[in-house]
Structures are given as structure tokens and as C-alpha cells.
Predict the 3D structure of the following.
Amino acid sequence: MEIVNALGRRKSAIARIYLNSGKGSIKVNNRELEDYFPFEQLQYIVKQPLALTESEGKYDIKVNLIGGGVKGQAEALRLAITRALIKADPENKEILKSNKLLTRDPRRVERKKPGRPKARKRFQFSKR
């Protein structure tokens, strides 16, 4: 199998992955997945598409992650893995789409408006 590459984005995080057949190792910025994402919840988010398609030990994944926070990076990586698995085996699309892993979450941080302390917050009203 040739190397499959894919891209995933969430908020300001960008994940570029390279997927090829192997023993199931996941390297994120030249570190193991457990070192990069120490929390079980984030590891679960990343491994969700692999668990659904029952391909956890089949592929080696090399990841370049930039920008955003840990949650945004984990979700960007999940989307990238989902897209790569579909490129590798188009039969996976139905399972992943039914679990809503193909949808790119478009929500971003709202910009701060001029003359206000935050995006929507107003200054305290004073009657006198």
C-alpha cells in the first residue's frame, strides 16, 4: 500500500497526516500519541475512527500538528485520520459518515468588537 496523506482542521489547529500499512503506531510531531496527548479522553477522540473501522493495528500514522489548543488539535487529527481511512478504503465511508466523523466543525472564536471588553460583553451600566 502506498502512503495516503490527508488534512484535518478544527478552530485554528491543522493536522497533516501520512498513513501507511504497519503495526499501529501513531507519531505526533515525532512523539508517541500517549506522550503528546496525556489525557485518556483526547486519546479516545483521536482513535475513534480507527476503532469504528476496526483497523487499530493495521496502519502506522505520522502526524504534523500545528496551531490551536489540545482539544482542537485532537479533533483536527480525528478528521484527518477519518479522511485518510476513506482514501485508503472507500468502504469505510458509510460507517464513519453515520457516526458524524466526516463533518468539519466550522465554529471559530468570535472576534472582539471595538469599544467592548470582549466579543459580546458590554461594560457595566451605570444609571448615575
Notes: The chain has one domain: 4-98. The chain has four helices and five strands. The chain has a mean pLDDT of 94.
